[in-house]
Amino acid sequence: MPRPYTEGVDDQGGTRPDLLSPKLIAVPRPPLDLLARPCLVAKLNAARDVVLLCAPAGYGKTALLTQWLDGQPDSVAWVSPDLQAFPALWPALLHALRQCPAIPHGALSWFTGAEKNAPEVIHVLSEQLTATGTTVRLVIDGIDQFPADELDHWVPALLNHAGPPFQLILATRVSTAVDSARARLSGRILELHSSDLAFSLDEINSLAAKTITLLGTQQLGELFRQTAGWPACVVLALRSLRGSADPEAPIGDIAGNNRELAEYLAHEVVRTLSSEERKVLSSTCVCRVLVAAQANALAGHRHAGNALARLGDDLDLVESAGSGRRVFLVRPLIRAYFRAELARRDPDELLRLNRIASQWHELAGEPEAALRHAMDSADHGLIGTVLERHGAALLGSGGVTRVRRAIAVLPDSVLAASPKLCVVAALAHVESRQPTTAARYLAAANRNWADDSPPDLRELRALAEARLSWFSGEWENRHPTATTDYAALPLSRQSDIRIEARMVSLTAAVVEQNYGTAENEATEALIEAAEAGNSYLAGKVYLKLAGISSMQGHLRRASEYLQEAEERLPTHVWSAGAGRSVGALIHASAALLAAEPAAALKFAAAGAAELGQLGSSSKGVGAAMRATLELVTACAHLDTGDRRHSLDGMRQARLRIGQDHLFAQPMAAFVAVIEHTAALALGHAERAREVLEWAEELIPGSGELCLLRAQGPAGISRFDAATERLRPLHTGAVAPLLEWTWLHVNVLECSMAIRTGRRTLAGKLLEDALGKADELGVIRPLAIAPQEVIDLLVERAGAHGPQEELAKKLLALRSPADARRAPLLTPREREVLTLLPSHLSQEQMASELHLSVNTVKTHIRIIYSKLGAGSRHDAVAAAYKFGHLP
Predict the structure, then answer these.
(1) Is 6's pLDDT higher than 80?
(2) Strands, DSSP E only, in 631-761?
């Protein structure tokens, strides 16, 4: 009689569960806390003649079969070698079949257990079962534990005869124990391997919910990454996390820190390996991805690749991937186990292996992996050598974070001895938007500069100086494209240097507002990046294009370019380089002009968090971004109804911009239009005049200045003067710096047309504004339009054609919240309103204000409309209600 198993470890720990009866080989009882796996059970239910489960220990093969066969023990004959008293396969099968309740007593008495002719014996067995009308599921759990000669003799016969009246179910840790090729060809077999049996992320989450109190999202993802869903290891890891009450705490190295899990791997997996296999796994544990030549170099002999192939083909501990299945990926827990053992027992060997790996990757043309292993080797000389040879190329492909980390671990003595290392460090910190640190490294390079420095080093220094100049207040005096060294960059033999040089030229063209030249440079840079297969530099070019479109006021195009940049720049690169700060700025501006102030505040806050790294210059890139973000923040507060500090915030942003400021004109246009419009709407005429005088100095001859000069007269109903001041825009004598300035012009002219009774013209102007807003992705000028323009929008509802959805969105923005907000009055309307509570006639009011009677009547009519009043009494009451009168 086989001994019952009594240890307190469930099947997911790789052991066999208790039996239902000590006297009966039956379906094992489901272990406690068994995770239901309905998808796998459904696959098993649909299986035909043969089921093969092949995976390493601890993948829950027995647990899955138990779950599937639970409730039908009478029709199951279960064979498990470690529960059998018979070393041979056929006697064990016969014993299990005789114990099966579904087979009539004595039906198999013809067999003695000593039979040798496997095909004939299995054929007779099938006939006997058919004669009794019995259908049996024959489970051989752990078939690889029977002697190899037994398997070679009996398994083919079992596979050939599988099918009614018996279904064959095999579970094994060694894939070569069963030759399933013929059954696979005939479609008679269902195979489940480790990839099928591994827990999914959702299953781990479900199991965690049953076993521990809390598991954070990051903890869950890290647990899945380290275990790759290996069920037994997941269970053991969750047990160790049971006492942790912090869902945000890192789980650390599971294989290295969890003693139970390490002992499980040692007992169930590692001890079953040969000494050669253990040596190969230990030698290669520093690498996640391997090829045979790399494994041979690490192990120090020519057979390591063969050993990895066997571990993959036979034991499923290594995955073969890639073209020709030439790449080996050791299971993460196995690799982590051997790495932890080396770190504990022989740390010097671990460092040595990383040095070998670094040198191998460098020879193989894989500099990023070479630098990673050099850092893991703690060899400063090796780190410096790899950085000198490949640091610039790594930066050009997006490796800024890794290069910066490597620079950080090097002693100052190593850096000071190498001008090239200092230049690479300077470029890395320019890429990370840290100009102060970059300048320090560049100065260190210049201190040790040699006149006979090689051309590639001179190119790198020229590029670093050119890029760094944009953060400095001296950029205007030392134009980055005017130096002799820079002139050689567009002709460099290195594609990434040529592309970066084009981006410097692109920036220079933007500063000079030569947008056509800038876009041509960007196009050429994109072509070179595509030819070089460099998606990182392509992403940077798209980021530049997004900035160009944003400066021109074309926010829809800017958002499209920004999306292209985000798709090409990986998350870690986006965060480490210019993407996060520039992207946040563009997103903030786009959200503000899309009338989404809450989103604008969110993006502006994210962008402002990066400003401390951009240097203290009052004229460089950092100052430009700071001023823009301050303006966006102040304006967004205004649009959310928080008017208290909004105008002061706009003034603060405006005063940061001088004539010698980087990107001064487009930024001045942005500030002037936004602040002037807000000042007039809030009734601050003096502030509006201040903005106008400032704009006359910074953006003379611009379309924005024409708009500002027209807004004042329009506000006091001097429509002829306002129209005359807009005339240069319509004749083409001047042009706006920002495309969306035309929207403010459309809104102003539409308002004037309504107030002078020209409603047909007003309707055309409104439709032009809607079309332009849709094209540019800018709707704020319409969202803050005077009430009469919004009333016309309502009046023409259903007649806006392709812009109907945009019109509905605008109306939704104005209602119902704006219905409760105090209507905005022009300064002249406020003057007229203050006289309404008096008993002055309209003629007397005209004399008091030095206006014509018709002008006063027009103002009163507009005031009534804005306040929703039908009489003078109602208008005064509404004015008190909204706070227009004290």
Answers:
(1) no
(2) none
**Model pLDDT for residues 218-240, shown as the tens digit of each residue:** 888 999 999 999 999 999 998 88
Residues 36-44: contacts with CB under 8 Å, at least 24 apart: 36/67, 37/64, 37/67, 37/203, 40/64, 40/68, 40/192, 40/196, 40/197, 41/67, 41/68, 43/190, 43/192, 44/68, 44/190
- Sequence-distant (6+) residues with CB within 8 A of 588 are 600, 601, 603, 604, 607, 629, 632
Q: Residues 795, 713: one domain?
A: yes
Question: What are the phi and psi torsion angles at 140 (to 5°)?
Answer: -115, 100
- Residue owning tokens 């690889």: 144
Please, what's the largest Cα pairwise distance for the chain? 129
> How many H helices and E strands in the chain?
48, 8
- 3-state SS assignment for residue 543: helix
Instruction: Name the phi and psi angles at 76, rounded to 5.
Output: -120, 130
Determine, yes or no, domain membership for 484: no
| 314 shares its domain with 370 | yes
pTM: 0.76
Q: What confidence tier does 23 reach under pLDDT thresholds 50, 70, 90?
A: very low
pLDDT bracket for residue 660 (50, 70, 90):
confident
pLDDT tens by residue, 283-326: 999 999 999 999 999 999 999 999 999 999 999 999 988 888 89
Q: Where are the alpha helices (DSSP H) in 448-578?
A: 455-469, 484-487, 495-511, 515-532, 535-552, 555-568, 571-576
Q: Which of these, 779, 469, 434, 755, lies nearest to 613 by C-alpha position? A: 434
The answer to whether the Cα torsion of 590, 591, 595, 597 is positive or negative is negative
Report pLDDT digits (tens) over 799-813.
Answer: 888 888 888 888 888
Containing structural domain, residue 842: 827-882
Q: Which residues contact 641 (CB under 8 A, 6 or more apart)?
A: 821
CA gap 677, 646 in Å, rounded:
13
If you average pLDDT over residues 722-751, what whole number do you get? 94
Residues 848 and 876 in one domain: yes
Spatial separation of the C-alpha atoms in residues 465 and 488, rounded to whole Å: 14
Phi–psi pair at 574, nearest 5 degrees: -60, -40
**763 and 842: one domain?**
no
pLDDT at 132 over 50: yes
Instruction: Tell me if residue 683 falls in helix, strand or coil.
Output: coil
| 312 Cα distance to chain centroid | 33
